[in-house]
Amino acid sequence: MKAFDTLYIGGQWREPSAPGVLEVRSPHDRALIGTTPYARPTDVDRAVLAARRAFDEGPWPRLSAQERLTAVARLCDLHAGRAEELASLVTSENGSPLWFTRWLHASGIPEQNHAYLRAAREPDWEAQIGAVGDTRTVVRRVPVGVVAAVIPWNAPHQSALAKMVPALLAGCTVVLKASPETALDALALAEIVERAGFPEGVVSILPAGRETSEYLVSHSGIDKIAFTGSTAAGRRIASIAGQQLKRVSLELGGKSASIVLPDADFDDTVARLKTLSLANNGENCVAHTRILAPRSRYAEFVSELAAMVDSLEVGDPADPGTYVGPMVRAEQQRRVLDYLELGVSEGARVAAGGPGVPEGLEGGYYVRPTVFTGVDNGMRIAQEEIFGPVLSVIPFGDEDEAVRIAEDSPYGLGGGVWTADPEHGAAVARRIRSGYLTVNGASISPSAPFGGFRASGIGREFGTIGLSQYIEHQTIAY
């Protein structure tokens, strides 16, 4: 069992402001896997004060861009060196299958970090843009200030470093608020930050609940909010940011549509949808959960998709052979089970899985990976984010109808097109207002911007554009 008894505040391990222990339990069998302190508003005050002093008076924002880059690169290297340990820890906390957390920590996160490091080498942090008579004009890229980074439990280190790395490269100071479900790996990240050797006050990491999150983002000492989580929480944070005129970036929910055109290779499409739709137990904001299939080949496609889903190994997430693990907590399990029952009541047909808990796994927070067929896009199972291994297959007649269905959503985060003609697939993708689209499951560069349209968020992460979210531009004429 892993146990922490202090919080990481301003670069030091400090006693929490109030007694109390946060227990982290396995979603597989509910066994206790570790304990941490629980941050409260007083701890937030201490962290923000330390970050404010470090930004207003300390050396970090005043270092050269190269000096900051060297320090952040050290953090990234130290993090990569603990990839296997961190993957196992996250799996034990949130139920993500080990195959997924190993890939994410060994490959996905390092690629994301390196893209940010490359981006930090690109800009002229101060440049002269012209002269008017004897007057020179200089444009400076300066850090936005003290950043409140609030992250979810489904991919905690990916979300944390997607915010911390660019913020630190820009010269910001950071207060990271982690979810209670993944409190242990949050403080493991603090151990890595400590070893990287940032100046006092630059980074704080606090596991806490929603009430403390709202206190943090509302704090007068915060200049910028960076949030990943539900659209409902994002709306609340956006309203706070609007009232206080704080900078804000929001990476929110999705209900991504994958359009399978009639000429697509169904075998390849279904094989790739296994990952794009069901990775991380379907607890994935960009999951392709609305699968749009042509009426002319609908039954054929549904048969292949259902056979794939029925073949998935469901069970202990620490077993390398498991593809789908448990939901993160009892409330999330109940939410998904309720949607499975709702789908049946709405008139959708179950092609694979269905309501209920898999036999033999009643001790954990498991659900059956499910494929609904005969789905109308107006059904709630097609309109609302379920955040679990639940797919809706929606029929379409022609390409224009497919695009209309894809666009008929409050969200606009991810999606895809499947076709024998990739150029045509890209043309269809251009008609869809979504932030992150792939044709035939093509890999997307970690330097490409990530984020959504509509209710899927504000702003972008990753690469040069992600770095820019933590920068203000200052003009000086003299």
TrEMBL record:
Keywords, ordered alphabetically: Oxidoreductase
Classification via InterPro entries: Ald_DH/histidinol_DH (IPR016161), Ald_DH_C (IPR016163), Ald_DH_CS_GLU (IPR029510), Ald_DH_N (IPR016162), Aldehyde_DH_dom (IPR015590)
Protein name: Aldehyde dehydrogenase
Record family assignment: Belongs to the aldehyde dehydrogenase family.
Keyword Oxidoreductase: yes
Coiled-coil parts of chain: none
Pfam family, one: Aldedh
Sequence ranges assigned to domain Aldehyde dehydrogenase in this UniProt record: 13-476
Catalytic residues (positions): E251
Domain of life, per lineage: Bacteria
